[in-house]
Design brief:
The structure is a homodimer of 258-residue chains. Chain A is an alpha/beta fold and 258 residues long. Chain A has two domains: 168 residues, Alpha/beta knot (3-Layer(aba) Sandwich); 69 residues. Helix content of chain A is 46%, strand content 13%. The first copy, chain A, has a seven-stranded parallel beta sheet.
Chain lengths: 258, 258
């Protein structure tokens, strides 16, 4: 199965959104994380028209699907996940915390399943009736002082988690896998570390400068030189930095000498 | 250290936001994930007033800090992280993918450090000038077809990642730990990062030294200062190194002056 098909096997479903900005924000989050299937259930009609006419949203919403019921929206899914904040309700479904969701989704996709991720309206979230269509409830861990998230932000957070931590999604070449550190383009040679002999040359110049400027008493010299050598190795000099530093200390020595 | 104090050791910094809705959304994301420190740098003035007068935003923005420069906003931070999408620019800073960021932040907090997470304006993100204040660039992995995220959504995604995957934040009873990493040993205070204002003090001293030593023509000064700021942030100065370096350059300046 290709990545495109994998990304297509997740449906983002918005139930009765009221605010056109939130529909646009949800569509943008889908596009940001490479998900292509957005379904809007029973939108407040002026909202839908406003969302569709918003700048830039046309492209994002053109392929969105409209349904009148949640049942219809999730009809072809094999796993339906409702979203909410943990403490909003006593759930009748099993609750999985968002940071622990990836393996659940990965397993479903491995079995050629289809996953629907369902978001409720801004005011009330998913109703008990909506939740009856859900196998599990995904809890975004939020502070008890402000548990309720903005709709567009909660869509973004959920899709970020899945795009980076479900291997089938993260394997796409443009989404960096979570566990491996960012694989970066090969650095410019000027950005690579200087050879050790340049570090030692710099250390010598700084020592000479310290002596010329009478930075410390002679009795401290050995200890200072030791610390300096350690410090220079710890610092991530590039070759470019090294050339600058050598030039600067040569110049300083010349000035002090005149 | 209690969780509240830990949450207080991360600053969210918005640079020149234009849209009041985005300021409100960023403030809400902070509250959702238990972060209490929000700084807004040089907001477009009508924007700031509109954001503050928006429904529900008063409570969230009441404790926000306003500064006129990014330098001021990050003055007491020990690690400054810029945010952006990977492919927007060839970075002059090391890039870390957001899913790999938690250990970096955890280590900084273990050393009693303060982290600033910096977001650029809606239109252009962080400028090259802004990025010169950053040690590292955090890349949110997004699709090349739609790499640019909404400001409020990118704040939410970053704070979700840190709130759930940095043990010091996730340890709070309401945020479920993603995978409990071993607690890091506390480093020697002398080995921890210096605060930004010390780095800036050193940068100023070196600039003065360059001028006093006539290191380069005046026409090169701005470029040199930019490079110097980048280089100092890349180098892993400890507080101890910093004291030495400040002392040395003060001494050099004094010698050149006599």
């Amino acid at each position: 199965m290709t990545t495109e098909q994998q990304h297509a096997s997740l449906d983002v479903v918005l139930v009765r959104p009221r605010n056109p900005l939130n529909i646009g924000a949800a569509a943008r989050a889908c596009a940001n994380f490479g998900f292509t299937r957005l379904t809007v259930v029973d939108p407040y009609d002026p909202t839908w028209r406003a969302a569709c006419s918003a700048v830039d949203a046309e492209f994002l919403l053109a392929s969105a699907r409209l349904t009148s019921t949640l049942a219809e929206a999730v009809a072809t899914a094999t796993l339906v996940l409702g979203t909410g904040s943990v403490d909003r309700r006593k759930s009748e479904q099993p609750v999985v915390a968002l940071p622990a969701l990836a393996p659940v989704v990965a397993q479903e996709l491995a079995g050629a399943g289809r996953v629907a991720l369902v978001f409720g309206s801004e005011k009330h979230g998913l109703t008990r009736e909506d939740l009856a269509w859900c196998h599990q409830l995904v809890a975004i861990p939020t502070s008890p002082l402000q548990p309720s998230m903005n709709l567009g932000q909660s869509v973004a957070v959920c899709l970020y988690e899945l795009a980076t931590r479900v291997p089938a999604f993260a394997g796409d070449n443009h989404i960096l896998p979570a566990d491996t550190a960012a694989s970066l383009p090969a650095p410019d040679p000027a950005d690579t570390h200087p050879v050790m002999q340049d570090l030692d040359r710099l250390a010598s110049l700084i020592e000479e400068t310290m002596a010329a400027a009478r930075y410390s008493p002679a009795s401290m010299r050995a200890a200072n030189e030791h610390d300096l050598r350690l410090a220079l190795r710890r610092m991530a000099f590039t070759r470019h930095d090294m050339r600058r530093a050598l030039g600067l200390f040569r110049r300083i020595l010349w000035r002090i000498g005149h």
